[in-house]
Each structure stands twice: as C-alpha cells, then as structure tokens.
Design a protein that fits this description.
The strands form three sheets. A three-stranded antiparallel β-sheet has the order 3-4-5, with no helix packed on it. The chain has two domains: 55 residues, no CATH class; 104 residues, 2-Layer Sandwich (GMP Synthetase, Chain A, domain 3). Helix 1 crosses helix 2. It has 160 residues and is of the alpha+beta class. The longest helix has 24 residues.
C-alpha cells in the first residue's frame, strides 16, 4: 500500500489519509508463513519449543519490527532536523517471563522490559543524537505500542 499525502488550499495544509496494512498468513505446526504484498516472512518457534526453527520466533520478530520502525522514523526525522544520519545499528533486548505463556494468569504474556541500544553513525554531537532520539521515540508507531503496553523501555543512543 502506498503512502498518501495530499495538500489542500486551506490553512490546515497537509492532509493525511489513514493507512491500512494487510497481512495474509497460514500456519503449519508452529511455522507461520506470512505474505505482505510481494514479501514473505517466515516465523517459527525454535526446536526447544517444538518448532522447526525455520525463522525467528514471534517475540524476536516483534523486536525486529521495533528496530525497523525506529530506523524508518529516525531517517524521516533526521531529514526534518537536517541531521547528518549516515546509519544506525540496533541491539534490542527483551525480557519475557515464560510463565504467562505457560498459563500462569498472574504473569503477563509479553515483554516486561525492553532495552534499546542504538549506535548512530554521524558527524553530529552527542547532544544532537539525544535530540534525534527524543524526537523519534514519540513518533515511532511500534515504540508507541510498546509504551502503551506498559513495557519498561530503557533507551541508549550513542555515537558510533
């Protein structure tokens, strides 16, 4: 689906249409094959969980989506800020208590804590990196989902 942005002649300026994303998926055992447009994503459980380890597990996929979303958002924000963003590498760690997945109703079934270590390749200062980080986090949709889920987010953005 394409991004749609249009302008009108009023003082409001930019008009954004709501976007709809469609994923089609099928499961065979623990392996899920998802299709998103022309792209295929394979998600599975590791052999320890009874899977075939044909791809990352759902929680690893979620952390990967966070990295990708922060990267896309950072690139958009960097252009607005005239920030020299040459690249970002992420190490994202999620803490998860499997007792919730195993049926304990007193334990959440999702991450308790997520740590984001972003290493930014740039000619900018540490202060400018912190400025970029502060602008990215509230605008990143996946980051917003994590925050709304009351997941403790620990963020550290540094210069490469």
């Amino acid at each position: 689906m394409a991004f749609c942005a249009c302008y009108d002649d009023s003082k409001e300026g930019l008009i954004m249409s709501k976007m709809k994303f469609i994923v089609r998926a099928s499961g065979e055992g623990t392996t899920t094959a998802a299709r998103v447009g022309k792209h295929k994503i394979v998600i599975d459980a590791d052999t320890q969980m009874g899977g075939k380890d044909m791809g990352p597990n759902p929680l690893e996929t979620l952390l990967s989506a966070l990295a990708a979303c922060e990267n896309v958002t950072a690139n958009a924000v960097a252009k607005e800020m005239k920030f020299d963003l040459q690249g970002i590498t992420f190490k994202i760690t999620g803490e998860f208590d499997p007792r919730g997945f195993m049926g304990d109703p007193n334990v959440r079934t999702y991450f308790e804590k997520v740590e984001v270590e972003a290493t930014v390749k740039t000619t900018e200062s540490e202060d400018r990196i912190k400025e970029l980080q502060k602008a990215v986090e509230p605008r990143c949709p996946v980051y917003g989902i994590f925050k709304a889920s009351n997941i403790q987010m620990v963020n550290n953005w540094v210069i490469a």
